[in-house]
Amino acid sequence: MPEKPYDHIQIELKWHERWQNAGFYKAEENSSKPKFYVLEMLPYPSGTLHIGHIRNYSIGDALARYKWMRGFNVLHPMGWDAFGLPAENAAIANKRPPREWTLQNITAMKKTHRRFGFSYDWDRELSTCEPEYYRWNQWFFLKMLERGLAYRKRALLNWCPKCATVLANEQVVEGCCWRHEDTPVEQRALEQWFLKITDYAEQLLDDMAQLEGGWPERVLTMQRNWIGRSEGAEIDFAVAQFSGLRIRVFTTRVDTIYGATCVIVAPEHPLTGTLLDAEGKARAKAMVDARAGRDPGDIEKEGFFIGHYAINPYSGEQVPVWIGNFVLMGYGTGAIMAVPAHDERDFEFCRKYGIAVRPVIRPVDGTLGVEPGLKEAYCDYGVVENSGQWSGLASEEARQRMAALAEQNGFGKAAITYRIKDWGISRQRYWGTPIPVIHCPACGVVAVPEDQLPVVLPDNVEITGTGRSPLEAVPGFVNVTCPRCGGPARRETDTMDTFIDSSWYFYRYCDAHNSTAPFDPSKIAYWFEIDQYIGGVEHAILHLIYSRFFTKVMRDIGLVRNDEPVRRMFTQGMVIAEGAKMSKSRGNVVGADILAEKFGADTARMFVLFAAPPEKEVDWRAEGAEGIYRFLGRVYRFSTRNVPQQERSGTSDRAVLRKLHQTLKKITEDFETRWHFNTCIAAIMELVNTLYAEEQNISAQVMPQVLETLALVLAPFAPYVSQDIWEELGKKGPVFRQSWPAYDPELAKEDEAEIVVQVNGKVRSRVFAPFGTAKEELEARALADEKVRALVEGKQVVKIVAVPDKLVNVVVR
Fold it and tell me: Average of pLDDT values for 548-565?
């Protein structure tokens, strides 16, 4: 049969049409097969997909197809993270309702997903902006309210002027809004709703032991640092001029307290209202505004003495009280004792302002530091000195005894504190889940009864972006009857942070159309934990911590049995172009639809998998895509012209089968362990090069096995072309639903070298020999080869050059 040209448009559109309504991507219910739940993070429907998105989805799709071929019952769903500020801001800019804009984008993105042939079970599709989904956001909120995990308080919060809404601490990056990198975050005091994630801080830390080995260590480290567990003591310093007024400090090193030379409080500390005059309050407020959302470790340390002194409860010494911009209310008690001789941060601050430095801890095998002239803080444990009755104790023992004394005498206690703060979920915007509470003048805050859920977000709302919720201006939404007393009341107008939507969506996929519960626990028991989750490392702190928290709450209310939602987590590298991450604002986006038209979906998918290991960055280059396109053309032409069985010598059968099974072994092992899809594809390329070189010497008995296996190993990476080759071979059914071929361990062995045989410098054949075979034996094997014998017969062999394990060159004349 003559070879067929590789027409990617004709091939892909043919199968795209046939696969539109096919059911072979559906997960099976009540299956006896082993299950595999693979999931990529659901996208925000911004309108178009680019090559960066394609990389994420191609990784998950390749794994899903491989697992189907290995006999697993695969769940591979897709949905839309559809609420959020971008839709609302676009509505303001384009004068279009957020819902209309969002649904239009979903339609466009779903079309692209289908064009690329991603293997999603679309029967489980969900959109978080639909009432049937966000009803359960509200239900979870009410359950947390019942358990004291949801509460309302006035707090100093992060405010983005461009978003005109509150941001969670995790949504502030280097002092700026996570969505507006050029917009500094401000601080505002507002009544807000919070979720008590701090109640689960210890569990979130302890349960990371279950994730080790399955999650990137980088992600686990980021989460540990964000949760920030510190074990120490809380100690009260009485304010000298105020009877009964105490400043409680948190310290991890109470053994150093005799070296405390001042107390430093956060500029927003509640006691500043009492301790500061008008000028001091203004200076403190300026500090708060200047450091909004910034990591205290990244700002220059500044402070001022407030004119008051605090009494060290151990030594009785009076030390000055300062305000410091690096002390936070959200960590510990919002106040610290500064021990500059034994803390680098305190050393820097006290040296800057001329505050005394007093060493009180010496190294176990060294001497106590001496002032003046101390160059740096000694921060390790050691032996306590110059500390009254505690002198001579080891630091660890002193810590325990001193904390116990504080508790016995009522001026402190041993304590554990965390860096993580409770999750502020209130947003003063329209396009989000309404918070299901009612404010009654008589009854206070009243939960919306469950049988009145969902509280539906009204349509046709004027959106202004003024910083006040647009829902306040909708009388039909705001004005309600109190469900408790029947009197007039007002509905809550803040909406929920959209990270609520993504904290539990993967559970809903298991029971996507349940109208009586968020999901059926028995279905969760089958599918969970997620076997493989794939997404960007930028979600390590936000989404991944929140989703772990939600899982633990669900477990505690009896919905799930698992402690963690995800068994294995994978963070793919970004796709960059022109040296920067792809983004619309930079104008360097490579659109997925354009790629499918120009090169084909298979080419785009294979390029992003081949260009680098999946955890590394990929630099988009058009010439790289062109190379993949040419390779797929080679595969297609070779396969189609060799479909008819042709009688050939078969002298290369052993070499070809050996290469085939070595390739199969490598790909299988890569899928099962390290996911180096780039080396999998490189191995297929090497195989194809061998097939081209040996094409005329592959027998009619071996060629069908070669072509079938080639189509099967290509199927996870390039489903369209592999399916077309499968059909050309006369095979039925989807190629990725066939059994993954098993490699022959003997043929796949790497203990035998493939020796290239040249005659007068030109490659004429290949022979095999154990590694380390002597030159004389290699020469004999080369001359015994049928092809070589035919070429040298009747000629004089001038010399033979043998390179062990590599080649033999026979020179004749």
Answer: 98
